[in-house]
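Field log, afternoon session.

UNIT: design team B
ACTIVITY: writing a sequence onto a fixed backbone
BACKBONE:
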């Protein structure tokens, strides 16, 4: 299975396929709406877990079957910089993208949310190492279970554009993709979609701690 279809499969789950009562996919115990997630690394599949099963896989060495617990840390880096030229090289058509370190493929994957779900963008290694990958958050990024989420602010044409970067659990990116999929209208998304996106980023910022303080 391609990594993209694995992403898509996760993305359709909450809206289209989720049963009324979510259960832990490891032990079938019913779980509340907020619950841990595991990543099945080889298939890059997200799995809902109960507290005890999530705890069981919290230690990366405990995986055995190739599962890793999605952590719940959120980090921000006020020193993060991305020039217009570096952003343009990424060839992302919307003002946000997320970057995953895929251990199975041994490479960084760039994705962006679109009305069709998560879309992958080709990312050359040089583009990564010279841009987003050169920041402090990139050195903190855990493979498969965390992502670097970059937002480039294009509001207000007269102001200089700024880019911000957050290190987030990978399931947060899928929630963002779900939001875009649900609310995006027309070419530019429309006011409703951007309100949802702004709220989502506000919530992430509230959870995030500066990377320097955290390490
Ligand atoms: Zn369980
Ligand atoms: Zn879940």
């Amino acid at each position: 299975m391609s990594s993209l279809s694995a992403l898509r499969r996760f993305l359709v789950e909450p809206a289209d396929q989720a049963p009324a009562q979510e259960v832990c996919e490891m032990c079938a115990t019913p779980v509340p709406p907020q619950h841990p997630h595991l990543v099945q690394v080889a298939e890059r599949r997200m799995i809902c877990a109960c507290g005890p099963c999530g705890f069981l896989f919290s230690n990366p060495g405990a995986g055995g079957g190739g599962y890793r617990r999605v952590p719940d840390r959120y980090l921000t880096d006020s020193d993060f910089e991305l020039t217009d030229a570096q952003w343009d090289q990424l060839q992302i058509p919307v003002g946000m993208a997320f970057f995953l370190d895929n251990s199975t493929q041994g490479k960084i994957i760039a994705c962006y949310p679109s009305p069709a779900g998560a879309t992958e963008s080709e990312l050359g290694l040089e583009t990564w190492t010279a841009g987003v990958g050169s920041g402090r958050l990139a050195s903190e990024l855990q493979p498969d279970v965390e992502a670097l989420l970059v937002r480039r602010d294009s509001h207000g044409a007269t102001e200089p554009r700024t880019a911000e970067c957050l290190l987030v659990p990978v399931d947060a990116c899928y929630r963002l993709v779900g939001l875009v999929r649900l609310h995006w209208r027309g070419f530019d998304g429309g006011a409703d979609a951007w309100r949802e996106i702004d709220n989502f980023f506000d919530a992430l910022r509230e959870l995030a701690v500066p990377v320097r303080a955290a390490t």
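LOG NOTE: The CA atoms of residues 86 and 165 lie 14 Å apart.
NEXT ACTIVITY: expression trials, pending approval
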